[in-house]
Amino acid sequence: MARQQKTKTKYSKGAATGFFMVMPTVIGLIILNIYPLLRTVYMSFFKSGAFGKWTFVGLDNYIKMFQSAGFWTITKNTLVFMVLTVPVTVIFGLIIAVLLDQKIKGKTVFRAIYFLPMVVAPAAVAMVWKWLFNSEYGIINTVLGALHLPSDINWIADPKTALLTCAIVTIWSSVGYDAILLLSGLQSISRTYYEAARIDGATGFQQFRKITVPLVSPTLFFVLMMRVMASLKVFDIVYMMIEKTNPAIRSAETILYNFYQETFVKNNKGYGSALVVWCVILIAVITIIQFIGQKKWVTYDV
Amino acid sequence: MAGASRNGRKISKANIFIYLVLILGSVIMIFPFLWMILTSFKSVPETTLVPPTFFPESFQNTAAYIQVTNSLPFLKLYYNTLMMIFIRVVCAVVFSSMAAYAFAKVHFPMKNLCFALVVSQLMFPAQVFILPQYEMISAIGRTDSIFALVFPGLVSAFGTFFLRQTYMGIPDDLIEAARIDGCGQFRTFVSIAFPLTKTAIAALAVFTALFAYADLMWPLIVNTKLDMLTLSSGLSTLRGQFSVNYPNLMAGSVLAMVPMIVIYLIFQKQFIEGIALTGTKA
C-alpha cells in the first residue's frame, strides 16, 4: 500500500524518457484513430455535395437511415449473419479443440490443416467457394446430385440462400482460428482435475460439462466476443461472393458492405458515416449485453 | 491389470472415432484448395463438363496462369503486399514495444491518460476510421502508394496493449538491477527488456502480417492503379474481368495464396503458437 502511494506521487527516474517512448504511439493514435473517429461522427451530420462541398443537415442522415427499408434490411442481414455464423463456428471450434487435446498422433499436422484458411486472403477463399457453389458446374451441387439430394440450388444468386452461403464460407474459414485459441485454453487446464473425476467415476461427457466448459469459459468468452464483433463487421467474404449485380444482393448485403457502397462508390459520405456510426453502436450494445451475460457462465476464480 | 487393459482398448476405440472426425474435417479444410489448384490447370470448356472431371486433362496447360499474369502485374502485387506487410510489422513491433515497455515499467506524467487512450481504441472497428484516413491520404496526394497501404498500421493499439502484458511479466528487480548499473531507461529497454520478449514479438509480427495480408477494404479504397494493388485487392479486380472464367480466377487465387502458404508451412509452429498467444494474453 505504502509502495503504491509512493509510485503515485513520485515518477521514476527517466520519466521523461518513458513519456517520449509512448509518444509515437499516442500521437499516431490521435492522428490515425481519435481524429478520424471524431470526424466520422461529425461528418454524419453533414451531406456531401459536389466539389467537396459539405452542408450541415443535423440528424437528417440518421432520420433518412431509420426511415429507409433498405437500412433495416441490411441491419437484419448483419444480425442474421451473426446468428448463422457465431454459434456454429464457436461450437465446431470447441469440438475440434477438444479432439485435438486428446492423446492422439499427428496433432501438429491436424492443427496446421485446420488453421490453413487463416493464412489465405479472404478474397481468394471467397473466389474458390464461389466456384464450388456454382449452380451449374459447381462440385457441391454435383455431389448433392450424386447423393440424390436437391442439386439445382442456386446458392449464390437465390435470395433465400445467398447469405447462408456466405455464412458457410465464413464458418469454414474461421473455425480453425477459434479452435487454436480454445486449444490453448484447454491445454492450460491441469490434468489432475480429470484424473480425480475419473476416479470418482465421471463419464466423458460429465467431465466435459463439469470440468472442461467451466475452466475454458474465459477463453470461450473471449472467442465468442471476437467472433460476434467480426460477424457484425463482415465485409470481404460477402463483397467478394455477392456482386452488386447479383439478384440476391438485397438479402445478403451487410452494414459495412452498404457503407462501402454508399461512401466510396456513390460518394454519399455523410450518409456512409452515419451507417458506420450505427455499426459501432450495434457492436457496443451487443458487447455490453455479452458482458452482462458472462457473469452467468464464465468462471474466473479457479 | 485386466481392468486397465480393457480400459486401454476402450480408449483406442474412442481414438479411432476421434481420428475419423479429424480426418473428415481435414478433408473439408483441404479440398477447396485442392480444387482451386486442379481447376487452375483446366480449360474453360473442361470446367463446364457434366459430370465434372477431377483431374485436368494436362497439368501442362498453364493458359490460365499466362492470361492472369498478363492482365495483372503479379510481381508488382507481390512487392506491394510484401512491403505493406514488412513496414506494418516493423512499425507495430518498434513503436508498440517502446510504448509497452514505458507503460509497464516507467512511471511518467499523464501515463494513465495515455494508456486509457490506447485501450479505448481496441473497441472500435477499423472501418470507423477509414473515410477520414482516406481523406488525409488524398489531401497529401499520396493515394496509389506504398505509404497509403501502410498508413492505418503505422501504430498499433492492440500491439501496445498485448506487449504491455508481456513486459508486466518481467520482474521489476531485473529492470532495477540494470538501472542501478547505470543503464538509462532507454538502454534498459533496448538491451535488457526487449530481448526477453522475443516470443511475444514473433506473435505480434505474425498477427500483424496475417491481418495486413487479409485486409481488403482499405487497399481497395486508397490504391486503384493496377500496379499499386495488393494481392487481395488485385483478386477483386480479376473477379470483374473474368466473371465466369474459373480457371483464370483459380490461377489468380493460387498465385495470391502460394507465398503465404509456403511461409506458413515453414514457420507453422510459430504461426499457430503466435496466434494462440495473441488470443490468450490479450
UniProtKB/TrEMBL annotation, chain B:
Q: Which Pfam families match?
A: BPD_transp_1
Which residue ranges does the record assign to the ABC transmembrane type-1 domain? 78-267
Q: How is the protein disposed in the membrane?
A: Multi-pass membrane protein
PROSITE patterns (UniProt xref): ABC_TM1
Q: Where in the cell is it found?
A: Cell membrane
Give a yes or no for keyword Cell inner membrane in this entry: no
Quote the InterPro entries the UniProt record gives.
MetI-like (IPR000515), MetI-like_sf (IPR035906)
Source domain of life: Bacteria
Q: What is this protein called?
A: Carbohydrate ABC transporter permease
Give the species this sequence originates from.
Blautia celeris
